[in-house]
């Protein structure tokens, strides 16, 4: 891999990490992170029940589902994609671990930040997003390989 391509990958991975940190560490009422009502949260809000996620699917509004649940998955998709691009030799479980670790660190930090909540479901959804990024990379990689094989067979005729 040439130096420019590696530098671009490093920049994109760094940007994806900084973007995740920006959205998860600073309350943004407009996009659904932090307090929806704009006021301070005066108590710790911690959810350690992973089954609560299913309650969200059943009872939450579509807006909440899209912003919070689907948003958590989509937020980590670029991280998983760029991590796989930078470290293509990572095995699937390494990538799952990296996504879960990054998300767990964020959730632990949020324990000590005002107007933040800590939720095991965020770790689960963020890890799913990391895996989705990995799978997207593998899909794109296979498609590119197919295109290269087709180009070679077209030129050999």
UniProtKB/TrEMBL annotation:
The chain crosses the membrane at residues 7-26, 64-85, 92-112, 124-140. InterPro entries: Teicoplanin_resist-assoc, VanZ-like. Keywords: Membrane, Transmembrane, Transmembrane helix. Residues 15-140 form the VanZ-like domain. It comes from the Bacteria. NCBIfam families: vanZ_1. This is VanZ family protein.
């Amino acid at each position: 891999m040439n130096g420019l391509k590696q530098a671009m990958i490093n920049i994109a991975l760094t940007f994806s990490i900084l973007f995740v940190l920006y959205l998860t560490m600073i309350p943004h009422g407009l996009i659904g992170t932090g307090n929806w009502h704009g006021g301070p949260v005066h108590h710790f809000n911690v959810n350690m029940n992973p089954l609560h996620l299913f309650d969200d699917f059943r009872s939450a509004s579509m807006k909440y589902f899209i912003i919070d649940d689907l948003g958590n998955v989509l937020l980590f998709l670029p991280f998983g994609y760029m991590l796989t691009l930078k470290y293509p030799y990572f095995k699937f479980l390494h990538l799952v671990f990296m996504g879960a670790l990054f998300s767990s660190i964020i959730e632990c930090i949020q324990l000590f930040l005002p107007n933040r909540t800590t939720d095991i479901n965020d770790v689960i959804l963020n890890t799913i997003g990391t895996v989705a990024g990995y799978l997207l990379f593998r899909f794109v990689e296979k498609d590119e390989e197919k295109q290269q094989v087709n180009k070679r067979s077209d030129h050999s005729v």
